[in-house]
Amino acid sequence: MVSPELLFNALLTGLFLGGFYAAVSVGITIAFGMLDIVNIAHPVFIIMGSFIAYIVNRNFGLDPLLTVILATPLFFLLGIVIFRFYYAAFEKSGKGSLRGLAFFFGILFVIEVTLLLAFGVDYRLVQTSYIGPNIGFKHIDLPLRMVIPFVGSMTMVTGLYVFFSHTFIGRAIMAVAQDEFALSLMAVDTVALRQLAFGVAIATAAIAGGFLIVIQPVDPSLGREYIGRVFAICVLGGLGSITGTVIAALILGTVETITSTLFGPSWAPAVSFAALLLTLAIRPSGIMGR
Amino acid sequence: MTRIPSWIWPIIIAVLVFAASRVVKNEYYMFAGYVVLQYIVLASAWNILGGYSGYVNFGSAAFFAIGAYGTVVLDKLWQPPLVVAIFLGGIVASLVGLATAYLTLRLRGVFFAIATLALAIVLQTLVVNWDYVGGPLGYYSVRPDSIVGFPSYVNYLFVIMLVLALITVLVARAIEWSFIGRGLAAIRDNELAAECCGVPTLRLKVFATMVSGGLMGMAGAPFPYYITYLDPNSAFSLAYGINSIAMPLIGGMTHWIGPVIGAVLLAVIQQVATVTISSELNLMIVGGLLITFITLAPNGIVGLFETYRQQRLERASP
């Protein structure tokens, strides 16, 4: 029998992990939920962020989180380049989804193999002051390497929420997500808005990558594990809703941690698939879906 | 002059290849040829759903591994003839296809794609946790003694895969030319319009998924004997996922010959690259070719050929 203390600890860890999952999935929520671009390569961009944090940390000793924040403009530009290419090659000609999907699948492979050739299959980690110690009181232990990504993720997601609901540009992007055609009739450059939003989505991958390498060592093929997870969260949250994404991420993080406490960590990856199938079977529009 | 029906050609080529397998003594060609044939099966099977109806299946590795691990289970139980294992592997894989398809194909196509991607990861989790088939350590399968009438067991596996490839190509062709193929093509072009015209879209999609998944499972069944040591990483290798998408895309998805061309081309390139360069670079080549083809030649090699023929016809009759 599992002690209540252990279960409580698992619950707490799960919530923190879920907070991090929100940062991982929010890029998919923007790209897939709002823009209808099925970017299955998103997790591999996150791994790219992790490796940038790793290289800079090892060579210059810079803090990984500072590094990835500095790297966001680069990722933003990368997102814009990819969107330009995607738009010119697939969307303009009107044969989007299937070829677009295969396109991102190809990108996923090229980036992953490049990382594999450059760094090998070893796990890489970073050195910072907050990776070792725990904060805790009484029977509860909270590793700082979970707490800091959690706080960072929540800050980032809140920032994005404010951006999309309270700024002019953000609300314009939401309008594109709702009805692009109607907006284009009002002489709005919807392509520019979508391009900007896709840039933001890829930029979040850099930051999420920084959190990831703080939480655990990273190897080039780790991204695959996250593909099912991020889409499960995105669908469960109700496509395109940031609030829904956070709620779904917290739920999935908690269920995963409790599953691995009760049945062993090798069962954790099955949770996201079950969540995905259950959502699709019972309520395809998700928690916050319209 | 009556035209020779096109289903004759795959049979003639298969017979020629079989004859060659009797003459060639070097076993390496059997080993390499087996992989090429296996990819012909996977690519043609993928194309039945992906190419004809436009629904992307990322989980080819899952269906393949179901066949492979089905054989492992049977091997531990009573070592039946390989044909039985292939048959059972196909049935189980098509049932998994049925379940996945029924749950997700009623929704947007993207959900099916994501579900198949997740399916591969989850089945791998199950196998890793299943000690009976070796768990994460893998399973050594002892090859049975040579089969009567074949010079070696590798030769026997080669011929089995040749027959499977022939069956798959003929099935793909039959589906393409029947009302099922026309229905699937209607779904690909405009699903809503097809539904309105009375095409039973859901039933056709589920049927295509079952046939496609079943054939992939059959392709996986001989694999444990081919590789003799099967572990989750080799059975669920993402190489199967990307190759079975890249091959039809590069060959051409609307015609049954497309996946065959793509499979032969890519598999041969990869066999050569594995021997001469490295196996990681392999996937890089496939990924690069995939991106190049879907952006520059979306209808693949068959599409390029048809455009060329069209232009020549137009020039001939102004």
Please characterize this protein's 3D structure:
- The complex is a heterodimer of chains A (290) and B (318).
- Chain A has one domain.
- Chain A is built from eleven helices and two strands, in the order ααααββααααααα.
- Chain A has helices at 4-34, 42-60, 64-91, 97-119, 144-166, 168-178, 180-185, 190-215, 223-236, 242-263, 268-282; strands spanning 134-137, 140-143.
- In chain A, strands 1-2 form a two-stranded antiparallel sheet.
- Chain B is an all-alpha fold.
- A two-stranded antiparallel ribbon of chain B has the order 1-2.
- Chain B has 15 helices and two strands.
- The longest helix of chain B has 27 residues, at 27-53.
- In chain B, α3 crosses α9 and α13 runs antiparallel to α14.
- Chain B has one domain (8-238).
- The A-B interface holds A 32, 38, 40, 85, 89-90, 95, 97-99, 101-103, 105-110, 112-114, 116-117, 224-225, 227-228, 231-232, 235, 264, 266-267, 269-270, 272-274, 276-277, 280-281, 284 and B 50, 54, 56, 58, 103-104, 107, 109-111, 113-115, 117-119, 121-122, 124-126, 128-129, 238, 242, 245-246, 249, 280-281, 283-284, 286-288, 290-291, 294-295, 298.
N-to-C series of helices and strands of chain B: HHHHHEHHHHHEHHHHH
Give the helix level of chain A as a range of percent. Answer: over 70%
| Largest sheet strand order of chain A | 1-2
How many helices of chain A? The count is 11
Strand line-up of the largest beta sheet of chain B: 1-2
Rounded to an integer, what's the Rg of chain A over CA atoms? 19 Å
Oligomer state of the chains in this structure: heterodimer
Helical fraction of chain B equals over 70%
Low-confidence stretches of chain A: none
Strand content of chain A: under 5%
- Total number of strands of chain B: 2
Terminal Cα separation of chain A, in Å?
A: 42 Å
The structural domain count of chain A equals 1
The largest sheet of chain B, given as strand count, sense and whether it forms a barrel, is:
2 strands, antiparallel
The end-to-end distance of chain B, rounded to whole angstroms, is 27 Å
Order of helices and strands of chain A: HHHHEEHHHHHHH
| Rg of chain B, Cα atoms, Å | 20 Å
For the largest interface, the chains and their residue counts are: A-B, 44 and 40 residues
